[in-house]
Amino acid sequence: MISxxxxxxxxxxxxxxxxxxxxxxNNYCSANNIKNSKGExxxxxxxxxxxxxxxxxxxxxxxxxLQKLIYSVGTCFDIASSTERQLLNIADxxxxxxxxxxxxxxxxxxxxxxxxxxxxxxxxxxxxxxxxSCTIKxxxxxxxxxxxxxxxxxxGDSVAMHLISEExxxxxxxxxxxxxxxxxxxxxxxMITEASVPGQELESIPxxxxxxxxxxxxxxxxxxxxxxxxxxxxxxxxxxxxxxxxENEKIIGTGETAITVPPQKAVLLVQGWNENIARTFxxxxxxxxxxxxxxxxxxxxxxxxxxxxxxxxxTRPASVPLYVRVYVQDTIGQTxxxxxxxxxxxxxxxxxxxxxxxxxxxxxxxxSVYPTLxxxxxxxxxxNESFSYKVNVSENELFTFNSKNISIIAENNI
Length: 414
Fold this sequence. Notes:
With 414 residues, the chain is α+β, with helices and mostly antiparallel strands. Helices cover 26% and strands 27% of the residues. It has eight helices and 22 strands. The strands form eight sheets. Strands 5-6-8-3-9 form a five-stranded antiparallel β-sheet, with no helix packed on it. It is elongated, with a radius of gyration of 31 Å. The two termini are 49 Å apart. The mean pLDDT is 85.
């Protein structure tokens, strides 16, 4: 028994279909007193030596094929029951693009040489091109990063930039992994880099299926816009906060990362980078954006009579470290402890900006990989002091995972 659009269907074997046809014919002939030339009630015997039975068995095989074919046609437009190939067709029809493997990005600031009055050695412009490179060896492999776009710095200037890996992949790099290029351009003084924003693998079919299903219930322009921006190469996560009030401003976040949002304004939160973010944003929304000190401006030229240029602030979500305590019944080895920490850390690719974390989410994640592990409970915290069954974040915050913040505690040692 299978279900399609909440209607149950049964695809039967050739033998089952043959038996159903024989039963229907025999019952019909008996109820309507249908007789053969000898005056006997017609009755078909289920016997392989009976030619009529074998004909009906062949028809049963044909009916089975037709049942499977009709069901396959039905699943072409049913998200839950569709095959992988059918789901990709549904995604095309729905205008949902499968998230490609994304590249790791590194936010940075590049500084040009300071102005000088030395006529014999004058300061020159620093020209940043996408052909410049920064190389690091990771697991015996050379990983190369390039500037995301070109820029020209006058003496004394600085520019916010993104370095993007040549190939898709998830690379975790600490602050100031790069302080200069492989070959520095003229006029270059220094570079300060932040921690990397690791890329992601090609979106799995189950994740795509879930995203399309969720899309059925997401009808706001902001949500649709965020989904399209997430589909861009180099963008891992996106969320858009909009202040619907006509009178009152709202504040999201706390401390240095807090953002004041005036009425009818939006905050575009993006983890990652792509040069088409502004273009995609204005394809769906025509509202002003605001940001904070961590925001970058990207401009998009509108094809209109006045050739106007619209600007959008792209704000990075504030990273909030998550502290986790996992309680197990018995002591587990170092290898298993490391594996459990890795499983918990893998939740980073599933959560969204502004999403709270609950103990149930972590238990389900662990159980999905290690169903026999006797997990007694999990609690979480954002300050490593107040632990509870859930932790909340502001609309502009995103939880980050680090193995050193995940503790495995055996209850027999408590």
